[in-house]
Predict the 3D structure of the following.
Amino acid sequence: MKDDQLSKLINSDLETSHSQGSYSVSIQIYRSTDSSWTLEVVAADGNATVWNDTFDSEDAALGEAILAIRDEGIQSFYAKAVA
């Protein structure tokens, strides 16, 4: 993303945190003024996972994050996979 686009990022009101046991992630949903929504999940250890595909709506992005956490496990977003 270009520097001028970074200054114009729009964060979704649906951004949230999610925890399971001792693991937690931040679900970040954002876009520039002329793009679709980007989904990024950031684990407590700082590891970030950004989806290659963008989303037409904030709701779709949040739904994808929740499904990924449910299906893959919250620990899969950490730099070192935890058993």
